[in-house]
Write a structure and sequence with these properties.
Layout lengths: L5 H10 L14 H11 L11 E6 L2 H7 L7 H6 L2 E8 L6 H10 L5 H16 L3 H25 L3 E5 L7 H4 L7 E10 L13 H4 L4
Length: 211
């Protein structure tokens, strides 16, 4: 029998809501937030370069800095336990040696495989256009963002992805190099103050084809 519980996962998917108002009395500890992020970063990424980077905005001072940059999402910023700013690192290739070296150290990859793959990957990615690199890391960071939302729900928390904010200012506002770190989305997280609402999803028959 599979160790995975299909019913539990489907329940998480069915129960997930985009929440706008949270219980302000509920705080998520750094330890628990780290556990959520660690689980979510099991998401796949192109050649495992893991280009996602996170800023967990939880202090009153940090939220005050974020508020004018997310003008139409004030309730989420104010009431959530935190807002996670997800960025994609354009310099993700810088971590190639570290990631593959650690895989060898932990016994996850043979040394000869690393020795073959690292120069091959470096050669391949060094030759792609900046636009192609950006498109790839945005896809990867979208995958980890969904991972955060599903993991948070499994932990008993609620989330909402936010795309309406000042993307041209967010990196510098939180001391990141805006030419290196591409904003992906904001994710509010906390305990819902209300049940939220369900939304319509198009049926599979309408959106999928079998050939």
């Amino acid at each position: 029998m599979s160790k995975y519980n299909k019913e539990a996962f489907l329940e998480i998917m069915q129960d997930r809501r985009s929440i706008r108002t949270y219980d302000e009395n509920v705080k998520i500890s750094k330890e628990e937030m780290s556990e959520i992020l660690a689980a979510a970063t099991k998401a796949p990424s192109s050649v495992n370069l893991q280009p996602w980077r996170f800023v967990v905005i939880e202090s009153p001072e940090a939220k005050a800095k974020l508020a004018p940059l997310a003008k139409f999402n004030q309730q989420q910023v104010k009431t959530s336990s935190a807002v996670i700013a997800v960025f994609a690192d354009l310099n993700n290739l810088d971590y190639l040696e570290e990631i593959y070296g650690k895989a060898v150290e932990l016994g996850l990859m043979p040394q000869d495989v690393k020795d073959k793959q690292v120069p091959s990957i470096r050669g391949l990615l060094s030759g792609i256009s900046p636009q192609a690199n950006k498109e790839t890391i945005l896809i990867d960071s979208g995958l980890v963002s969904m991972g955060i939302m599903l993991t948070a729900k499994a932990f008993g928390y609620d989330t909402c992805p936010i795309g309406g904010y000042e993307k041209d200012q967010i990196a510098e506002a939180f001391d990141l190099d805006k030419d290196r770190y591409v904003p992906v989305m904001l994710l509010s997280i906390g305990k819902a103050a209300d049940a939220g609402y369900q939304s319509y999803r198009m049926p599979v028959e309408q959106i999928a084809e079998w050939k």
